[in-house]
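Lab manual, section 2.4: Encoding a predicted structure.

Procedure: take the sequence of the chain (73 residues), apply the prediction step described in section 2.3, and record the output as C-alpha cells. A sample record is shown.
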Amino acid sequence: MAKITIDGAEYESESLEPEAKAQVDMLIYTEQKIRQLQADLALAQTAHTAYATRLRALLPAGETVKIEGGFAG
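Recorded output:
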C-alpha cells in the first residue's frame, strides 16, 4: 500500500475514492512534466548562452549582439 501525504495528512492510496486517486495520478504526472520542462529550459538557456558567446567572439570587439525577437546579452 502506498502512502500519500497531502497538507501534512497521510492517506493510504487504496483508501481514496477513484476520483481522488485520479487527481493524485494527475498531480504526479504534472510534477514529472514540470521537472522535465525545467530541465528542457535549462538546456535551452545553456545553449542560448553558448551560441551568444560564440557569436560575440566572431564579431568585431565592442559590438552588441541584438537578436530580432530577443536580446542575446
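Check your result against the sample. Residues 14-57 form one domain.
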